[in-house]
Structure formats: structure tokens, C-alpha cells
């Protein structure tokens, strides 16, 4: 049977990328899972701390993310929904795993390299200044590995920006299995589950992915945007001045991104969608993208607004989820402690 695990950071309201790269896909998995499969979805508060957070805003964002998971259709009776930061097993396992993870592997993570690139020495471009980057930014892929391995997850549905981290998780699991091999391999090697929609790009800078933390709010469409906001953001999306519509992610990233969004919303193949727009213009495409995005977000938005005020209910769901997650991960940690000599 499968154990499916995934997480999302409480760093703001999810955008189209999170929706198609993660949330919508989780709901699909939940619907199609075999009765014996287990599903765990986590709001990963400790990961959010790798960037500066306002404590009050973080508190609110954690609660909001719980409401959002339910609003998009995660069913707490079928899936274990919980806050990562309620389960200390994650940090304990992360420590143990960090002690078998070479720093060189972490230094090769694209996410880390991107952080480094941003902090290049202003006077000397070739010199990288990592003195101000916090240690959590460097080691969080190990915490991610612990999130997954604490439940001996076999399948991890994440966007393709996370694929490298999952490969690291497999490496770490293999490293542990090799170092502590008696009586048998402890961790299954989790498989990456890709999403058909792949990466959704920023509406303003299609060389970057759509991101919650990008400075310009017009670069992303979030689940709580009103129809008017959706319309204006799509109207302002960066495209190109080439006539007609074609799907060409390299030469026409902005136009192709709009086609990908349309295809994701209508559950169509992007090349089929592109064919239909061949003789049409950017105005037509943008009008149709606006319509389908509005339609996609209408129900979850209304459900979120309703659930958001139900603090007691959300707290209860989080407590029930934590109890289940704790008992699963306690079992793994007992084995891990025993193997490493900390029983
Ligand atoms: N642009 C994207 N396209 C497709 N999938 C995406 N994901 C994120 N951005 C895109 C997927 O969303 C899931 C949850 O992500 P997260 O909350 O851990 O945040 P993140 O990956 O760091 O992305 P964000 O939204 O840009 O957040 P910030 O700005 O806070 O870092 C993951 O499965 C991810 O692949």
C-alpha cells in the first residue's frame, strides 16, 4: 500500500502554482487512492521560519492554511491533516539525519544556490557572501527529508521545483539504511509524483516561478482574489509581441504560461489548447484564462471565507490530525533511536 505525504508552507494564501502543483493534485490523489492507502498532508510551519516572519501573521497563516486545505477538498476523515510544528518527531529525526548528510550535498541544492546568488558580494560579483544567510535555509532539505521519512512515506506529490529535494531525501534514506542496516532496510525510498501541470510561472517575470513571497502581488493569482483582481492581473500579464498564439515555453514563456494555466484549469492537454488558439490573439486568450481561473477558484474561495471564522472547528481538526500523525511517527522514531543507539 502507498503512504502519500506532502506539505505546504503557511507563508501566505496559496497561488495558482501551489494550487495546481500541489493542492488540486492532493485532492485528486485522495479521490483515487485505494482504501488501504494512507495520505498525510501537513502545514509545515518550521519551514516558514527559514525566512523572516511576523509572529502574528504566521499564527494567522497557519490557521488559514488549515482552512484552505479543507476548503479545496482535503477530507480530514480520509487524510491526516496536521501542523508539522505540533510533532517534535520531525525535528528530532532531522537532527539524526543531518548527522549522516554531507554538507556538499546541501551545497548543491538549487534553492541554496539561488539564495547565494542573491547575496553575492556587491563589490566583487565572483565572491559569494553567505555570512548573513541563516543555517535553516541551508539545512531545511534535511528537515524535509525527516517530514517524509517520519511516516515512511512511499510517494511524495510535489511541484517539479521540489524534485531535487526529493532526490536528496532518497539519498538520505539510502544512507541511513546502509549505515544502520540490521535487521533490515528501515526506510522505503519515496517516489516523486509529478503533476501534469508542472511549473506555473510568474505573471510578471516568466523566467521565475509563481511564488508566494515574490514582492509584486500582481505576479501571482491567489485563492482569495476577487474576480476583478483576477481580471486585472491576467490583463497585465507579461506576454510577447508575436502574432498568433503558440505553445513555445522557451521562446514565448509568458504566452505559454497562460496556455498552461488554461490547460490546468480545464484539465486539457496544453498542446490541444494551443491548437485551438492558433489563429487568435492575446486578448482572446487572456479573456478565456480569466474566465476559467475565476471558475476554478470560486468554490474554494467561498468555502475558505466560511471556514476561516470557525476557529474552534479548525483547532479540533488540527488536534485530531496531530494525534494521528504523532502515533505514526512515534513508531518510526522508536525504531530510529534503537538503531542509532539512543533507545
Ligand atoms: N509556481 C509553481 N508551480 C507549480 N508548483 C508550485 N509549487 C510552488 N510554486 C509552484 C508547489 O507548491 C507546493 C507547496 O509549496 P510551499 O508552500 O512549500 O512553497 P514553495 O515551494 O517555496 O513555493 P512558494 O509558493 O513560492 O512559496 P514561498 O514563496 O513562500 O517559498 C510544493 O509542492 C511546490 O512544489
From TrEMBL:
Sorted keywords for this record are: Aminoacyl-tRNA synthetase, ATP-binding, Ligase, Nucleotide-binding, Protein biosynthesis
> Which reaction is the catalytic activity of this chain?
tRNA(Trp) + L-tryptophan + ATP = L-tryptophyl-tRNA(Trp) + AMP + diphosphate + H(+)
What InterPro entries does the database record attribute to this sequence? Answer: aa-tRNA-synth_I_CS (IPR001412), aa-tRNA-synth_Ic (IPR002305), Rossmann-like_a/b/a_fold (IPR014729), Trp-tRNA-ligase (IPR002306), Trp-tRNA-ligase_bac-type (IPR024109), Trp-tRNA_synthetase (IPR050203)
Pfam families per UniProt: tRNA-synt_1b (PF00579)
GO molecular function terms noted in the UniProt entry: ATP binding; tryptophan-tRNA ligase activity
Enzyme Commission no: 6.1.1.2
Q: Which domain of life is it from?
A: Eukaryota
Q: Where in the cell is it found?
A: Mitochondrion matrix
Q: What SUPFAM superfamilies does the record point to?
A: Nucleotidylyl transferase (SSF52374)
Q: Can you name a GO cellular component term?
A: mitochondrial matrix
Q: List membrane-spanning regions.
A: none
Q: What Gene3D superfamilies does the entry give?
A: HUPs, Tyrosyl-Transfer RNA Synthetase
| Gene Ontology terms describing biological process | mitochondrial tryptophanyl-tRNA aminoacylation
Q: Which NCBIfam families match?
A: trpS (TIGR00233)
Do you know which HAMAP family this protein is assigned to? Trp_tRNA_synth_B
Family classification: Belongs to the class-I aminoacyl-tRNA synthetase family.
- The protein's name is Tryptophan--tRNA ligase, mitochondrial
* Species this protein is from: Dentipellis fragilis
Amino acid at each position: 500500500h502507498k503512504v502519500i505525504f506532502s506539505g505546504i508552507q503557511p507563508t501566505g494564501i496559496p497561488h495558482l502554482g501551489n494550487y495546481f502543483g500541489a493542492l488540486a493534485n492532493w485532492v485528486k490523489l485522495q479521490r483515487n487512492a485505494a482504501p488501504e492507502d494512507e495520505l498525510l498532508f501537513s502545514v509545515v510551519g518550521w519551514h516558514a521560519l527559514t525566512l523572516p516572519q511576523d509572529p502574528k501573521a504566521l499564527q494567522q497563516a497557519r490557521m488559514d492554511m488549515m482552512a484552505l486545505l479543507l476548503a479545496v477538498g482535503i477530507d480530514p476523515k480520509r487524510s491526516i491533516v496536521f501542523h508539522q510544528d505540533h510533532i517534535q518527531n520531525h525535528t528530532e529525526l532531522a537532527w539524526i539525519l543531518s548527522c549522516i548528510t554531507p554538507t556538499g550535498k546541501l551545497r548543491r541544492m538549487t534553492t541554496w544556490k539561488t539564495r547565494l546568488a542573491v547575496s553575492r558580494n556587491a563589490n566583487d560579483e565572483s565572491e559569494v557572501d553567505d555570512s548573513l544567510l541563516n543555517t535553516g535555509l541551508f539545512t531545511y532539505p534535511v528537515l524535509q527529508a525527516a517530514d517524509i521519512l517520519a511516516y515512511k512515506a512511499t510517494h511524495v506529490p510535489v511541484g517539479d521545483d521540489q524534485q531535487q529535494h526529493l532526490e536528496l531525501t532518497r539519498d538520505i534514506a539510502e544512507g541511513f539504511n546502509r549505515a544502520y542496516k540490521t535487521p533490515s532496510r528501515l526506510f522505503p525510498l519515496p517516489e516523486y509524483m509529478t503533476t501534469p501541470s508542472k511549473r506555473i510561472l510568474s505573471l510578471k517575470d516568466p523566467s521565475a516561478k509563481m511564488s508566494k513571497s515574490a514582492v509584486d502581488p500582481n505576479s501571482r493569482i491567489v485563492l482569495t482574489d476577487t474576480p476583478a483582481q483576477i481580471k486585472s492581473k491576467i490583463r497585465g500579464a507579461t506576454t510577447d509581441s508575436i502574432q498568433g498564439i503558440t505553445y513555445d515555453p522557451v521562446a514565448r514563456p509568458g504566452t505559454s504560461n497562460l496556455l498552461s494555466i488554461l490547460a490546468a484549469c480545464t484539465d486539457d492537454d496544453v498542446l490541444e489548447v494551443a491548437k485551438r488558439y492558433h489563429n487568435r490573439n492575446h486578448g482572446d486568450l487572456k479573456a478565456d484564462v480569466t474566465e476559467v481561473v475565476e471558475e476554478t477558484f470560486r468554490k474554494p474561495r467561498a468555502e475558505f471565507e466560511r471556514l476561516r471564522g470557525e476557529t474552534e472547528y479548525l483547532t479540533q481538526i488540527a488536534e485530531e490530525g496531530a494525534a494521528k500523525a504523532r502515533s505514526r511517527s512515534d513508531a518510526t522514531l522508536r525504531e530510529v533511536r534503537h538503531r542509532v543507539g539512543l533507545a
